[in-house]
Protein backbone atom coordinates (compact mmCIF):
# COMPACT_ATOMS: atom_id res chain seq x y z
CA UNK A 1 0.00 0.00 0.00
CA UNK A 2 1.25 3.49 -0.86
CA UNK A 3 2.36 5.54 2.12
CA UNK A 4 0.83 9.01 2.17
CA UNK A 5 3.92 10.75 3.50
CA UNK A 6 2.71 14.25 2.69
CA UNK A 7 -0.38 13.93 4.85
CA UNK A 8 -4.10 13.79 4.38
CA UNK A 9 -4.46 17.57 4.03
CA UNK A 10 -2.21 17.72 0.98
CA UNK A 11 -3.81 14.64 -0.52
CA UNK A 12 -7.30 16.07 -0.16
CA UNK A 13 -6.23 19.40 -1.66
CA UNK A 14 -4.66 17.60 -4.61
CA UNK A 15 -7.83 15.54 -5.14
CA UNK A 16 -9.92 18.73 -5.19
CA UNK A 17 -7.40 20.50 -7.43
CA UNK A 18 -7.88 18.05 -10.31
CA UNK A 19 -11.67 18.49 -10.48
CA UNK A 20 -13.41 20.89 -12.87
CA UNK A 21 -17.00 20.85 -11.56
CA UNK A 22 -20.05 22.78 -12.63
CA UNK A 23 -22.85 24.23 -10.54
CA UNK A 24 -26.34 25.64 -10.96
CA UNK A 25 -27.34 29.28 -10.75
CA UNK A 26 -25.94 32.63 -11.88
CA UNK A 27 -23.99 33.26 -8.68
CA UNK A 28 -21.57 30.98 -6.89
CA UNK A 29 -23.18 28.75 -4.23
CA UNK A 30 -21.64 28.75 -0.76
CA UNK A 31 -20.43 25.16 -1.09
CA UNK A 32 -18.39 26.03 -4.19
CA UNK A 33 -16.72 28.99 -2.51
CA UNK A 34 -15.94 26.82 0.50
CA UNK A 35 -14.32 24.12 -1.66
CA UNK A 36 -12.23 26.76 -3.47
CA UNK A 37 -10.83 27.62 -0.08
CA UNK A 38 -10.04 23.94 0.51
CA UNK A 39 -8.08 23.40 -2.71
CA UNK A 40 -10.53 23.31 -5.62
CA UNK A 41 -8.74 25.15 -8.44
CA UNK A 42 -11.16 25.03 -11.40
CA UNK A 43 -14.81 25.74 -12.09
CA UNK A 44 -16.73 24.94 -15.28
CA UNK A 45 -19.42 27.28 -16.61
CA UNK A 46 -22.39 26.33 -18.79
CA UNK A 47 -25.31 28.18 -20.33
CA UNK A 48 -27.32 27.82 -17.14
CA UNK A 49 -24.76 30.02 -15.34
CA UNK A 50 -24.86 32.95 -17.76
CA UNK A 51 -27.48 35.69 -18.12
CA UNK A 52 -25.39 38.63 -19.40
CA UNK A 53 -21.76 39.77 -19.72
CA UNK A 54 -22.09 41.95 -16.61
CA UNK A 55 -23.58 39.11 -14.58
CA UNK A 56 -20.82 36.74 -15.77
CA UNK A 57 -18.13 39.25 -14.83
CA UNK A 58 -19.70 39.57 -11.37
CA UNK A 59 -19.77 35.78 -11.00
CA UNK A 60 -16.11 35.33 -11.92
CA UNK A 61 -15.17 38.20 -9.59
CA UNK A 62 -17.03 36.37 -6.81
CA UNK A 63 -14.97 33.24 -7.51
CA UNK A 64 -11.69 35.20 -7.56
CA UNK A 65 -12.47 36.85 -4.27
CA UNK A 66 -12.15 33.34 -2.81
CA UNK A 67 -9.23 32.19 -4.98
CA UNK A 68 -7.48 34.74 -7.17
CA UNK A 69 -5.92 32.19 -9.55
CA UNK A 70 -9.05 30.08 -10.11
CA UNK A 71 -9.38 28.53 -13.55
CA UNK A 72 -12.77 29.51 -14.92
CA UNK A 73 -13.52 27.19 -17.85
CA UNK A 74 -16.25 27.34 -20.46
CA UNK A 75 -17.34 25.38 -23.52
CA UNK A 76 -17.45 28.33 -25.93
CA UNK A 77 -16.69 27.13 -29.45
CA UNK A 78 -18.68 29.87 -31.13
CA UNK A 79 -21.02 28.74 -33.87
CA UNK A 80 -23.52 26.10 -32.82
CA UNK A 81 -21.90 25.51 -29.42
CA UNK A 82 -22.18 28.74 -27.44
CA UNK A 83 -22.56 29.42 -23.75
CA UNK A 84 -21.92 33.18 -23.76
CA UNK A 85 -24.89 33.70 -26.08
CA UNK A 86 -26.85 30.54 -25.37
CA UNK A 87 -30.24 32.31 -25.54
CA UNK A 88 -29.62 34.45 -28.63
CA UNK A 89 -27.18 32.54 -30.82
CA UNK A 90 -23.51 33.28 -31.30
CA UNK A 91 -21.93 36.41 -32.73
CA UNK A 92 -19.21 34.16 -34.17
CA UNK A 93 -19.49 31.46 -36.83
CA UNK A 94 -18.16 28.06 -35.84
CA UNK A 95 -15.23 26.08 -37.16
CA UNK A 96 -16.89 24.75 -40.30
CA UNK A 97 -17.62 28.25 -41.56
CA UNK A 98 -14.05 29.33 -40.86
CA UNK A 99 -12.74 26.27 -42.66
CA UNK A 100 -14.98 27.04 -45.65
CA UNK A 101 -13.39 30.49 -45.95
CA UNK A 102 -9.92 28.99 -45.38
CA UNK A 103 -8.22 32.23 -44.33
CA UNK A 104 -6.04 31.46 -41.31
CA UNK A 105 -5.67 35.16 -40.52
CA UNK A 106 -9.46 35.41 -40.29
CA UNK A 107 -9.64 32.35 -38.04
CA UNK A 108 -7.01 33.81 -35.75
CA UNK A 109 -8.81 37.16 -35.64
CA UNK A 110 -12.15 35.52 -34.80
CA UNK A 111 -10.56 33.45 -32.02
CA UNK A 112 -8.77 36.53 -30.67
CA UNK A 113 -12.00 38.55 -30.50
CA UNK A 114 -13.83 35.63 -28.88
CA UNK A 115 -10.97 35.32 -26.40
CA UNK A 116 -11.09 39.04 -25.67
CA UNK A 117 -14.78 38.81 -24.79
CA UNK A 118 -14.18 35.79 -22.56
CA UNK A 119 -11.30 37.53 -20.80
CA UNK A 120 -13.40 40.66 -20.27
CA UNK A 121 -15.93 38.45 -18.44
CA UNK A 122 -13.23 36.78 -16.33
CA UNK A 123 -13.10 33.44 -18.17
CA UNK A 124 -9.55 32.16 -18.69
CA UNK A 125 -9.86 28.56 -20.02
CA UNK A 126 -11.88 27.67 -23.09
CA UNK A 127 -12.65 24.03 -23.90
CA UNK A 128 -11.98 24.78 -27.58
CA UNK A 129 -11.10 24.45 -30.40
CA UNK A 130 -12.33 21.18 -31.83
CA UNK A 131 -9.47 19.70 -33.83
CA UNK A 132 -11.55 16.76 -35.07
CA UNK A 133 -11.47 15.99 -38.78
CA UNK A 134 -14.99 15.47 -40.10
CA UNK A 135 -13.99 12.38 -42.06
CA UNK A 136 -17.32 10.64 -41.43
CA UNK A 137 -20.20 12.73 -42.89
CA UNK A 138 -22.65 10.74 -40.75
CA UNK A 139 -20.99 11.93 -37.55
CA UNK A 140 -23.85 12.96 -35.22
CA UNK A 141 -21.87 15.05 -32.75
CA UNK A 142 -18.98 16.80 -34.56
CA UNK A 143 -20.25 18.04 -37.95
CA UNK A 144 -20.02 21.83 -38.17
CA UNK A 145 -17.87 21.87 -35.03
CA UNK A 146 -15.03 20.67 -37.28
CA UNK A 147 -13.06 22.93 -39.61
CA UNK A 148 -13.62 20.33 -42.34
CA UNK A 149 -12.70 16.95 -43.79
CA UNK A 150 -9.24 17.89 -45.10
CA UNK A 151 -6.39 17.08 -42.71
CA UNK A 152 -4.08 19.95 -43.67
CA UNK A 153 -6.92 22.48 -43.52
CA UNK A 154 -8.01 21.35 -40.06
CA UNK A 155 -4.41 21.43 -38.82
CA UNK A 156 -3.65 24.98 -39.97
CA UNK A 157 -6.92 26.40 -38.66
CA UNK A 158 -6.57 24.60 -35.32
CA UNK A 159 -3.15 26.22 -34.88
CA UNK A 160 -4.50 29.64 -35.88
CA UNK A 161 -7.40 29.33 -33.45
CA UNK A 162 -5.10 28.36 -30.59
CA UNK A 163 -2.82 31.32 -31.32
CA UNK A 164 -5.71 33.78 -31.53
CA UNK A 165 -7.43 32.61 -28.37
CA UNK A 166 -4.25 32.55 -26.28
CA UNK A 167 -3.13 35.97 -27.53
CA UNK A 168 -6.14 37.27 -25.57
CA UNK A 169 -4.90 35.57 -22.38
CA UNK A 170 -7.36 32.68 -22.52
CA UNK A 171 -5.94 29.15 -22.46
CA UNK A 172 -7.00 26.93 -25.34
CA UNK A 173 -8.06 23.33 -24.70
CA UNK A 174 -7.78 21.52 -28.02
CA UNK A 175 -10.20 18.59 -28.33
CA UNK A 176 -11.16 15.70 -28.66
CA UNK A 177 -7.89 13.72 -28.55
CA UNK A 178 -7.03 11.52 -30.41
CA UNK A 179 -9.83 12.65 -32.79
CA UNK A 180 -13.62 12.23 -32.70
CA UNK A 181 -14.33 12.90 -36.38
CA UNK A 182 -14.52 9.36 -37.75
CA UNK A 183 -17.35 8.21 -35.48
CA UNK A 184 -21.02 7.45 -36.09
CA UNK A 185 -21.94 7.40 -32.38
CA UNK A 186 -22.31 10.35 -30.00
CA UNK A 187 -20.20 9.72 -26.88
CA UNK A 188 -22.80 11.57 -24.82
CA UNK A 189 -24.96 8.47 -25.32
CA UNK A 190 -22.62 5.50 -25.85
CA UNK A 191 -18.98 4.55 -26.44
CA UNK A 192 -17.91 5.23 -30.05
CA UNK A 193 -15.25 3.13 -31.75
CA UNK A 194 -12.76 4.11 -34.47
CA UNK A 195 -11.28 1.21 -36.38
CA UNK A 196 -8.74 3.13 -38.46
CA UNK A 197 -5.28 1.58 -38.53
CA UNK A 198 -2.27 3.21 -36.93
CA UNK A 199 -0.88 4.75 -40.11
CA UNK A 200 -4.21 6.47 -40.85
CA UNK A 201 -4.46 7.77 -37.30
CA UNK A 202 -0.98 9.28 -37.48
CA UNK A 203 -1.44 10.84 -40.90
CA UNK A 204 -5.02 12.03 -40.35
CA UNK A 205 -6.43 12.28 -36.80
CA UNK A 206 -3.24 13.27 -35.01
CA UNK A 207 -2.04 15.95 -37.45
CA UNK A 208 -4.22 18.77 -36.05
CA UNK A 209 -3.13 17.93 -32.51
CA UNK A 210 0.51 18.12 -33.54
CA UNK A 211 -0.25 21.55 -35.01
CA UNK A 212 -2.01 22.64 -31.81
CA UNK A 213 0.92 21.49 -29.67
CA UNK A 214 3.35 23.33 -31.95
CA UNK A 215 1.18 26.45 -31.59
CA UNK A 216 1.46 26.18 -27.81
CA UNK A 217 -1.98 24.92 -26.81
CA UNK A 218 -2.05 25.06 -23.03
CA UNK A 219 -4.48 22.17 -22.67
CA UNK A 220 -5.78 19.16 -24.60
CA UNK A 221 -9.11 17.42 -23.95
CA UNK A 222 -9.42 13.65 -24.29
CA UNK A 223 -12.20 11.85 -26.13
CA UNK A 224 -14.38 9.07 -24.75
CA UNK A 225 -13.72 6.86 -27.76
CA UNK A 226 -12.29 3.38 -28.20
CA UNK A 227 -9.46 3.23 -30.76
CA UNK A 228 -8.28 -0.41 -30.92
CA UNK A 229 -5.15 0.47 -32.92
CA UNK A 230 -4.01 2.52 -29.91
CA UNK A 231 -5.61 0.58 -27.05
CA UNK A 232 -8.05 -2.30 -27.66
CA UNK A 233 -9.29 -2.34 -24.07
CA UNK A 234 -9.89 1.17 -22.78
CA UNK A 235 -11.32 4.40 -24.22
CA UNK A 236 -8.80 7.19 -24.77
CA UNK A 237 -9.77 9.09 -21.61
CA UNK A 238 -8.87 6.05 -19.49
CA UNK A 239 -5.93 4.79 -21.54
CA UNK A 240 -2.34 5.19 -20.36
CA UNK A 241 -1.18 4.18 -23.83
CA UNK A 242 -3.11 7.10 -25.36
CA UNK A 243 -2.67 9.86 -22.77
CA UNK A 244 0.82 9.12 -21.45
CA UNK A 245 2.40 7.00 -24.19
CA UNK A 246 1.07 8.86 -27.22
CA UNK A 247 0.14 12.39 -26.12
CA UNK A 248 2.81 13.00 -23.48
CA UNK A 249 5.75 10.92 -24.63
CA UNK A 250 5.40 10.56 -28.39
CA UNK A 251 3.83 13.92 -29.26
CA UNK A 252 5.67 15.77 -26.50
CA UNK A 253 2.69 17.60 -24.99
CA UNK A 254 3.62 19.12 -21.64
CA UNK A 255 0.44 21.05 -20.80
CA UNK A 256 -2.78 20.15 -19.05
CA UNK A 257 -4.72 17.05 -20.10
CA UNK A 258 -8.45 17.51 -19.41
CA UNK A 259 -11.08 14.81 -19.73
CA UNK A 260 -14.30 15.32 -21.62
CA UNK A 261 -17.34 15.34 -19.34
CA UNK A 262 -17.19 12.26 -17.13
CA UNK A 263 -20.97 12.21 -16.78
CA UNK A 264 -21.27 11.33 -20.48
CA UNK A 265 -22.69 7.85 -21.02
CA UNK A 266 -19.54 6.55 -22.72
CA UNK A 267 -17.89 6.64 -19.28
CA UNK A 268 -20.63 6.90 -16.67
CA UNK A 269 -22.64 3.99 -18.06
CA UNK A 270 -19.63 1.71 -18.46
CA UNK A 271 -17.21 2.54 -15.63
CA UNK A 272 -19.11 5.00 -13.42
CA UNK A 273 -17.79 8.49 -12.80
CA UNK A 274 -15.88 7.63 -9.61
CA UNK A 275 -13.94 4.70 -11.05
CA UNK A 276 -13.67 6.47 -14.39
CA UNK A 277 -12.07 9.49 -12.70
CA UNK A 278 -9.53 7.35 -10.87
CA UNK A 279 -8.62 5.48 -14.06
CA UNK A 280 -8.34 8.75 -16.01
CA UNK A 281 -5.88 10.30 -13.54
CA UNK A 282 -3.91 7.05 -13.42
CA UNK A 283 -3.77 7.03 -17.22
CA UNK A 284 -2.29 10.52 -17.36
CA UNK A 285 -5.21 12.96 -17.28
CA UNK A 286 -4.69 15.98 -15.03
CA UNK A 287 -8.18 17.46 -14.75
CA UNK A 288 -11.58 15.81 -14.48
CA UNK A 289 -14.33 17.70 -16.27
CA UNK A 290 -17.68 17.03 -14.64
CA UNK A 291 -20.74 19.17 -14.24
CA UNK A 292 -22.57 19.32 -17.54
CA UNK A 293 -25.31 17.25 -15.96
CA UNK A 294 -23.95 16.61 -12.45
CA UNK A 295 -23.62 20.02 -10.84
CA UNK A 296 -23.72 19.67 -7.10
CA UNK A 297 -21.51 19.41 -4.05
CA UNK A 298 -22.25 15.72 -3.58
CA UNK A 299 -20.62 14.92 -6.95
CA UNK A 300 -17.50 16.87 -6.02
CA UNK A 301 -17.21 15.08 -2.69
CA UNK A 302 -17.79 11.66 -4.26
CA UNK A 303 -14.99 12.24 -6.76
CA UNK A 304 -12.65 13.76 -4.18
CA UNK A 305 -13.16 10.79 -1.87
CA UNK A 306 -12.77 8.27 -4.70
CA UNK A 307 -9.37 9.75 -5.60
CA UNK A 308 -8.21 9.89 -1.97
CA UNK A 309 -9.29 6.29 -1.39
CA UNK A 310 -7.54 5.14 -4.57
CA UNK A 311 -4.28 6.65 -3.32
CA UNK A 312 -4.69 5.12 0.11
CA UNK A 313 -5.33 1.65 -1.33
CA UNK A 314 -2.45 1.89 -3.76
CA UNK A 315 -4.60 1.87 -6.90
CA UNK A 316 -3.52 5.41 -7.80
CA UNK A 317 0.09 6.46 -7.16
CA UNK A 318 0.20 9.53 -4.95
CA UNK A 319 2.92 10.98 -7.18
CA UNK A 320 0.58 10.82 -10.21
CA UNK A 321 -2.17 12.70 -8.38
CA UNK A 322 0.35 15.27 -7.13
CA UNK A 323 1.72 15.73 -10.65
CA UNK A 324 -1.80 16.23 -12.04
CA UNK A 325 -2.61 18.81 -9.36
CA UNK A 326 0.67 20.61 -10.05
CA UNK A 327 -0.18 20.87 -13.74
CA UNK A 328 -3.59 22.37 -12.91
CA UNK A 329 -1.95 24.94 -10.65
CA UNK A 330 0.68 25.69 -13.29
CA UNK A 331 -2.02 26.55 -15.83
CA UNK A 332 -3.79 28.67 -13.22
CA UNK A 333 -0.51 30.52 -12.71
CA UNK A 334 -0.13 31.05 -16.48
CA UNK A 335 -3.58 32.58 -16.77
CA UNK A 336 -2.77 34.98 -13.92
CA UNK A 337 0.45 36.08 -15.59
CA UNK A 338 -1.27 36.30 -18.99
CA UNK A 339 -3.92 38.59 -17.49
CA UNK A 340 -1.18 40.90 -16.20
CA UNK A 341 0.78 40.89 -19.48
CA UNK A 342 -0.13 43.60 -22.00
CA UNK A 343 -1.93 42.08 -24.98
CA UNK A 344 -0.46 42.54 -28.48
CA UNK A 345 -1.46 45.82 -30.06
CA UNK A 346 -4.41 44.76 -32.18
CA UNK A 347 -7.58 46.66 -32.94
CA UNK A 348 -10.74 45.23 -31.37
CA UNK A 349 -12.92 43.72 -34.09
CA UNK A 350 -16.45 43.42 -32.68
CA UNK A 351 -18.00 42.70 -36.11
CA UNK A 352 -15.41 40.12 -37.19
CA UNK A 353 -17.91 37.30 -36.63
CA UNK A 354 -20.40 38.73 -39.11
CA UNK A 355 -17.60 39.46 -41.58
CA UNK A 356 -16.55 35.80 -41.36
CA UNK A 357 -20.14 34.51 -41.63
CA UNK A 358 -20.70 36.53 -44.81
CA UNK A 359 -17.51 35.19 -46.35
CA UNK A 360 -18.49 31.62 -45.46
CA UNK A 361 -21.72 31.60 -47.48
CA UNK A 362 -21.86 29.37 -50.55
CA UNK A 363 -24.72 30.54 -52.78
CA UNK A 364 -26.04 28.45 -55.68
CA UNK A 365 -28.59 30.25 -57.82
CA UNK A 366 -30.90 28.60 -60.34
CA UNK A 367 -31.64 30.19 -63.70
CA UNK A 368 -35.05 31.39 -62.48
CA UNK A 369 -33.79 32.67 -59.12
CA UNK A 370 -35.22 35.92 -57.82
CA UNK A 371 -34.52 37.53 -54.42
CA UNK A 372 -37.18 37.77 -51.76
CA UNK A 373 -39.25 40.93 -52.00
CA UNK A 374 -42.31 39.79 -50.05
CA UNK A 375 -42.57 38.17 -46.65
CA UNK A 376 -42.07 34.38 -47.02
CA UNK A 377 -42.97 31.35 -44.95
CA UNK A 378 -39.82 30.05 -43.22
CA UNK A 379 -40.05 26.32 -42.52
CA UNK A 380 -37.40 25.06 -40.10
CA UNK A 381 -36.96 21.31 -40.69
CA UNK A 382 -35.67 20.65 -37.20
CA UNK A 383 -33.65 17.58 -36.20
CA UNK A 384 -33.02 16.57 -32.59
CA UNK A 385 -30.09 18.65 -31.34
CA UNK A 386 -27.09 16.81 -29.94
CA UNK A 387 -26.26 17.47 -26.29
CA UNK A 388 -23.15 19.54 -27.06
CA UNK A 389 -25.27 22.01 -29.04
CA UNK A 390 -28.38 21.76 -26.87
CA UNK A 391 -31.86 22.95 -27.74
CA UNK A 392 -31.80 26.25 -25.83
CA UNK A 393 -30.09 28.23 -28.57
CA UNK A 394 -32.28 29.64 -31.35
CA UNK A 395 -31.22 29.08 -34.95
CA UNK A 396 -32.46 29.74 -38.46
CA UNK A 397 -33.21 32.85 -40.54
CA UNK A 398 -36.76 33.79 -39.61
CA UNK A 399 -35.84 36.33 -36.92
CA UNK A 400 -33.33 38.03 -39.19
CA UNK A 401 -35.69 38.04 -42.18
CA UNK A 402 -38.39 39.63 -40.05
CA UNK A 403 -36.19 42.70 -39.60
CA UNK A 404 -36.33 43.27 -43.36
CA UNK A 405 -39.70 41.68 -44.17
CA UNK A 406 -41.75 42.16 -40.97
CA UNK A 407 -44.67 39.92 -41.99
CA UNK A 408 -42.46 36.84 -42.33
CA UNK A 409 -44.12 33.76 -40.80
CA UNK A 410 -42.39 30.64 -39.53
CA UNK A 411 -42.93 27.15 -38.17
CA UNK A 412 -40.89 24.16 -37.03
CA UNK A 413 -41.43 20.73 -38.58
CA UNK A 414 -39.98 17.28 -38.09
CA UNK A 415 -40.54 13.69 -39.17
CA UNK A 416 -42.48 11.95 -41.92
CA UNK A 417 -45.06 14.18 -43.56
CA UNK A 418 -43.14 17.38 -42.83
CA UNK A 419 -43.20 18.46 -46.48
CA UNK A 420 -46.98 18.30 -46.78
CA UNK A 421 -47.34 20.07 -43.43
CA UNK A 422 -45.14 22.92 -44.64
CA UNK A 423 -47.16 23.33 -47.84
CA UNK A 424 -50.39 23.51 -45.87
CA UNK A 425 -48.97 26.06 -43.44
CA UNK A 426 -47.29 28.24 -46.09
CA UNK A 427 -50.36 28.79 -48.25
CA UNK A 428 -49.46 31.12 -51.12
CA UNK A 429 -46.28 32.42 -49.51
CA UNK A 430 -42.90 31.56 -50.95
CA UNK A 431 -41.22 28.84 -48.90
CA UNK A 432 -37.78 29.17 -47.34
CA UNK A 433 -36.81 25.70 -46.08
CA UNK A 434 -34.07 25.77 -43.45
CA UNK A 435 -32.29 22.48 -42.75
CA UNK A 436 -29.39 21.12 -40.73
CA UNK A 437 -27.44 18.16 -42.16
CA UNK A 438 -30.04 17.17 -44.74
CA UNK A 439 -27.74 14.31 -45.81
CA UNK A 440 -28.15 12.61 -42.40
CA UNK A 441 -31.96 12.71 -42.16
CA UNK A 442 -34.04 10.79 -44.71
CA UNK A 443 -37.26 12.50 -43.57
CA UNK A 444 -35.67 15.89 -44.18
CA UNK A 445 -34.55 15.01 -47.71
CA UNK A 446 -38.05 13.64 -48.43
CA UNK A 447 -39.62 16.88 -47.20
CA UNK A 448 -37.38 18.89 -49.53
CA UNK A 449 -38.39 16.61 -52.44
CA UNK A 450 -42.06 17.30 -51.67
CA UNK A 451 -41.56 21.05 -51.39
CA UNK A 452 -39.50 21.46 -54.54
CA UNK A 453 -41.82 19.24 -56.59
CA UNK A 454 -44.84 21.30 -55.58
CA UNK A 455 -43.16 24.68 -55.29
CA UNK A 456 -40.12 24.94 -57.58
CA UNK A 457 -39.36 28.43 -56.28
CA UNK A 458 -38.57 27.02 -52.82
CA UNK A 459 -35.39 28.43 -51.31
CA UNK A 460 -33.20 26.00 -49.34
CA UNK A 461 -30.82 27.10 -46.62
CA UNK A 462 -28.48 24.42 -45.29
CA UNK A 463 -27.14 25.39 -41.86
CA UNK A 464 -25.32 22.12 -41.18
CA UNK A 465 -22.63 20.35 -43.18
CA UNK A 466 -23.52 20.90 -46.87
CA UNK A 467 -22.93 17.29 -47.90
CA UNK A 468 -26.09 16.91 -50.01
CA UNK A 469 -26.10 18.46 -53.51
CA UNK A 470 -27.58 21.98 -53.70
CA UNK A 471 -31.21 22.15 -54.78
CA UNK A 472 -34.03 24.65 -54.94
CA UNK A 473 -34.17 27.80 -57.02
CA UNK A 474 -31.72 29.29 -54.54
CA UNK A 475 -29.52 27.24 -52.20
CA UNK A 476 -27.42 28.84 -49.48
CA UNK A 477 -24.93 26.88 -47.40
CA UNK A 478 -24.01 28.80 -44.24
CA UNK A 479 -21.70 26.09 -42.79
CA UNK A 480 -23.22 26.53 -39.34
CA UNK A 481 -26.27 27.76 -37.46
CA UNK A 482 -24.83 30.65 -35.42
CA UNK A 483 -26.95 33.80 -35.25
CA UNK A 484 -24.51 35.62 -37.54
CA UNK A 485 -24.80 32.80 -40.08
CA UNK A 486 -28.57 33.35 -40.14
CA UNK A 487 -28.06 37.10 -40.51
CA UNK A 488 -25.64 36.62 -43.40
CA UNK A 489 -28.09 34.27 -45.14
CA UNK A 490 -31.01 36.69 -44.66
CA UNK A 491 -28.95 39.48 -46.20
CA UNK A 492 -28.19 37.27 -49.19
CA UNK A 493 -31.85 36.34 -49.63
CA UNK A 494 -33.02 39.93 -49.84
CA UNK A 495 -30.17 41.34 -51.94
CA UNK A 496 -30.63 41.39 -55.73
Low-confidence stretches: 1-7
Distance from N terminus to C terminus (CA atoms, Å) equals 76 Å
Helix content: 40-55%
Strand segment tally: 14
What is the number of domains? 2
CATH topology of the largest domain: TIM Barrel
- CATH classification class of the largest domain: Alpha Beta
CATH architecture title of the largest domain: Alpha-Beta Barrel
Can you say what the CATH homologous superfamily of the largest domain is?
Answer: Glycoside hydrolase, family 3, N-terminal domain
Alpha plus pi helix count: 18
Biggest sheet statistics: 6 strands, parallel
**3D shape:** globular
Strand order of the largest sheet: 2-3-4-5-6-7
Pick out its properties.
alpha/beta; TIM Barrel; Rossmann fold; 2 domains; six-stranded parallel β-sheet; six-stranded mixed β-sheet; disordered N terminus
Please give a structural write-up.
- Keywords: Glycosidase, Hydrolase.
- It comes from Streptomyces dioscori.
- One of its GO terms (molecular function) is hydrolase activity, hydrolyzing O-glycosyl compounds.
- Belongs to the glycosyl hydrolase 3 family.
- Pfam families: Glyco_hydro_3 (PF00933).
- This protein has 496 residues and is an alpha/beta fold.
- It has two domains: 331 residues, TIM Barrel (Alpha-Beta Barrel); 134 residues, Rossmann fold, CATH 3.40.50.
- Helix content is 41%, strand content 11%.
- The chain is built from 18 helices and 14 strands.
- The strands form three sheets. A six-stranded parallel beta sheet has the order 2-3-4-5-6-7. Strands 9-14-13-12-10-11 form a six-stranded mixed beta sheet, with helices on one face. The chain has a two-stranded parallel ribbon with strand order 1-8.
- Strand 10, helix 15 and strand 11 form a beta-alpha-beta unit.
- Helix 16 packs across helix 17.
- It is globular.
- The N terminus is likely disordered.
Amino acid sequence: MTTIASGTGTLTRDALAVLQPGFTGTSAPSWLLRRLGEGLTSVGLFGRNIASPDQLAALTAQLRAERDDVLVAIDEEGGDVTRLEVRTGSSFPGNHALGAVDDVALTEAVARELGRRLADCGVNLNWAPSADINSNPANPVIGVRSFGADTALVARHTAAYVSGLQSAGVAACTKHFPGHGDTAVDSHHALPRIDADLSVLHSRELAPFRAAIAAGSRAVMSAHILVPALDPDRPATLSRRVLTGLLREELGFDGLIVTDGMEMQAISATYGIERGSVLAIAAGADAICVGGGLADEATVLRLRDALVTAVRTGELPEERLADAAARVRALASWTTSAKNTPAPLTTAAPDIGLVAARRALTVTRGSDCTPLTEAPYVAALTPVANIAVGDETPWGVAAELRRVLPDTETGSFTGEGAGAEVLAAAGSRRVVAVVRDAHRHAWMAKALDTLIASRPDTIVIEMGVPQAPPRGTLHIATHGAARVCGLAAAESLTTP
